[in-house]
Structures are given as structure tokens and as C-alpha cells.
Recover the amino acids of this structure.
């Protein structure tokens, strides 16, 4: 497992409420008729809600983690595969290049 993914997974396990909000806000968008949306938009709404609308300590969501939340959502809800447009992660591109460079 690559380093960023490992960091995200550890952070995700310590902050499960972030993914709960991610699912909730994504489902709201789907229920309102959106066919595609940016995971950045969802994360920024979470940032807004947790910074402005709630009390308590602020926490930071790394931009490096956004792609993993989008992928997790589409994995858990395969009927919404493609809702978030994703590009191959750097590690996926490197693995592909390493695998096929000698052909």
C-alpha cells in the first residue's frame, strides 16, 4: 500500500464522521438529480460544516485524501460508479508503467 493511501486509511479510521458526512452530502446531491459531481465540492462542504456550522476543534482534511473518499464511495455504492470522475492515482500510473515498460 502506498504511503499516501496508508496515511489516508489511518486518518479515516480516526475520523469516521468525515466519511459519514461525505456519504450524506453525496446522497443529497444524487437525490437532487446530479449525475456527476466533484469530490472536492463535497469535501469543501464538509470543511464548511465542520468549521462554520459546528462547535469544537477544527480539523484538517488533506487534499491528498479526496480521491480516496471518492473511490471508497463508488466502491461501496457501485450503482453510482462514475458519479465522481477520477483519474488514475500516481501510484496506479507508476504501477502500470513499471508493469509494461519492458514490452
Amino acid at each position: 500500500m502506498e504511503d499516501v493511501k496508508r496515511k489516508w486509511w489511518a486518518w479515516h479510521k480516526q475520523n469516521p464522521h468525515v466519511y459519514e458526512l461525505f456519504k450524506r452530502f453525496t446522497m443529497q446531491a444524487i437525490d437532487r438529480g446530479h449525475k456527476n459531481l466533484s469530490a472536492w465540492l463535497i469535501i469543501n462542504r464538509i470543511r464548511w460544516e465542520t468549521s462554520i456550522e459546528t462547535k469544537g476543534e477544527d480539523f484538517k482534511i488533506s487534499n491528498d485524501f479526496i480521491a480516496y473518499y471518492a473511490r471508497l464511495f463508488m466502491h461501496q455504492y457501485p450503482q453510482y460508479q462514475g458519479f465522481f470522475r477520477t483519474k488514475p492515482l500516481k501510484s496506479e500510473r507508476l504501477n502500470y508503467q513499471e508493469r509494461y515498460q519492458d514490452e
Summary: The mean pLDDT is 85. Helices lie at 3-14, 16-31, 39-53, 66-76, 90-100. Residues 3-100 form one domain.
